[in-house]
Structure formats: structure tokens, C-alpha cells
Specification:
Number of domains: 2
Strand content: over 45%
Mean pLDDT: 91
Shape: globular
Helix content: 10-25%
Structural class: alpha+beta
Number of strands: 26
Largest sheet: 14 strands, antiparallel
Low-confidence stretches: 1-22
Amino acid sequence: MNKCAALALSVCLGVPAVQAADSPKWLTDARARESRLIAPRQFQSRDSWFRAKVPAKVVGVIERVQDSYSIELDHGSGASIYCEVVPHGIDMADMVRVSAESTLKRAAQLQGKVEERQVQVLDAGVFGNIPYLSISWMYTVHTDNGLRVGAFKQISMNKGNVGIYCAHVDLGYIKTFEAVTRALAMTLETTDGLRAPYYQEIATVSMGATKSGVMITTLERDADGDTVATQKMSMLLPAAANNVISQDSVSKEWIDPDAGMINALHIVGQNGELTTDLKLNPRDGQWIVEGQLQGKAVSAKLDQGSNPGTWVAQALALRKLLATPAAVGGEHSIPMWASANPGKLTVGKTKVLARIDGTHYHALSKIGTLSADVTLDSTSGMASAAEIRMGPQKMKLERVYVSGAF
């Protein structure tokens, strides 16, 4: 069980739950409760590996156990906020899913059978340059005293290469929870230092009207001086009103100074299960694809003479196109390595349709069977917004943070 979830429930679920038959006003009042937060206090782990400052009282000594640090934060409500700091980062979506299941399982052990559970709010965004996923749940349990109601809130974040997860078991203190967890993330520092890419973009991902994911794009140098172009996406996909599916993916391209491909990988996990694990490497003058896709082994060679493009090369070419007087109506094509068809290159096409303002253009982008309406930023050559058609559904990406240049 996730340590944070276990700690939260062992303490907080001892408080009598709310009667489900109580009036809506009572429920509204319960949710409206907030703490009067204290002035931020600095604290650190016992080994001094990390420190931060929060408007709450830190309970006990913070020690590293296995791969994380557990923190109890007393904000004055009687139900503490419990957090974990994970030195090597977390799969943001799966951390939420696994911890929610642990929380509900513990609720059943302490209170009685969980009769119903429901997602109340699902959200995604940034605290500064720190992406987060958050979700709140309500559930009912059958006890000897009748049907009762409980609730808990969760948030997961990655600050550079450090993961942060927090939970709070209570109907209320919504703004308090956000303020305390935001402070923890924004002020957290480590003795290792937090890896800073020379270019970073963060976009929220929406399915319908619900922000349910984040996409993080970074450029940084590795030990050999090569550029590592990384795109990570974490999403919580509602499976029904009472459940979510987690999906975490990472794509990495190692590229040379001319934005040419050196090698690449693509990894996808869904509900904690590895569904895609593919690598692209040059060998004896040919590109080799190895790994597994949807449980099946993949071993293939790209066609002789194939030259897989990179998203950095695509962005640089689009930036050049958008700087010309004849940008509108112009089109750019590039062969890309896509995991949907890993044994062949897939052509990515972008056609500029109209100028929006001094730095943005409306364009149509296609790769394989996917097409998207995009807003191109002429400064970077990247999309600042996109609407991707996926059958009857639409996925929307909206850039909410950008720093650096390339």
C-alpha cells in the first residue's frame, strides 16, 4: 500500500463519517470548511536531502524509507495532510490511481463495505513550472450505524526529477489542501539540485470539458553533450463516474546538433501495466526497432535509406516557414517514427491555413490517421494549442507554461 494513503486513513478514518441522509446544506457547509493557515515554516528531512516551507506544522521526523520520504502536515483541522517526496520522480497518473484504490480498501477495513464511490472533481494544471494532476472522491460505506459518507482529495506532481504526492481524507479544506501542497511543491529544494532543462513546455490535456492530463516537453543535454528531447504525458481517463484509468507515457529522442535522430524510445503504461516499450537504434547502417507493443514482441528494420525525423527538426522547419511572407498556404512534411506503426516511418504533414495575429497561425496537422487543428507559435515553431480528432471524441491540448529557447 502507498505509505501516504495508509497513514492518512489510519488517522483520519477514525473520525465518524457523515450521514448520507444529511441535508445538502450540511454537505455544502462541510465542504466549505477551511483552516486558518499559519505563517510558512521551513523544515527538512532528517538526512537534509530536501527542505521546503509550508503554512502548516510538520509532525514528527522525516526519514527516507526505501524510495521515499513521508510527511504529515497538521493544518489545524484534526485531519492531517499526508505527502510523499520521491527522489526519482513518479508516474503521476498511476500514483493517483494506485493510492486511491489503497485508500478505498483501507476505508472498507476501518469503516465497512464501500457501497459506492464517485469522482467529484478531476483537474490538471501547473504551479509555476510544476505540472499536477488532482482528483477528489466521495464514497459511502455501510456501517452498524447506517450508511455514511466519506471523501478524500489527491494531488500528484513532478518537480524536475522529484515526485510529490499528497492526500487528505475529509469533505472540506479544499483551498487549504491546495495552498499547503502548492507551497510544498514551489519551495521544495534538494541537495542534488533540481534538473533544469534549457527548454520546457507544459500543456494541459482535456477530454471534453474536463482537464484530465498534462504533457511536458523538455530539451536538455546529456553527459555526452547530445540533446535529449523528451515528451511525457500523464492522464486520468474517466472509465465511469466511479473509476479512472491511468496512462503514463514517455517518448525520448536523442538528437545531434543538426536536430537529426541518434536513437529513440517510446514507453506507455496503462493502469500500471507496460503496454508499449519500443526502442529505435541504428545498427550496421540501418534503423532497428525492438521491444514490445500491446503484449507482442516487435523486431523490425526500417526500409533501407530511411531517415526518421525528430520533433525538434519539425519545429525548426515550421519556424522557418512561418517567417516567410508566403507562410499561409505553405506546407511542411517530415517522416516520423510513431509507435502506432513502429516498423515504418509515418509522414507528418502540417499545412498553414491562416494568420491569427503577429506570432500565431492556424494550421492543420496530420500524422497517420490522426489529424489536428493546431495553433502554431511562430517563435518556437511549436503548437501552443491543438484539438485532435479521435473518432467521436476530441482531445484538446493547451500550453500553460513555456520557458527557454532552442
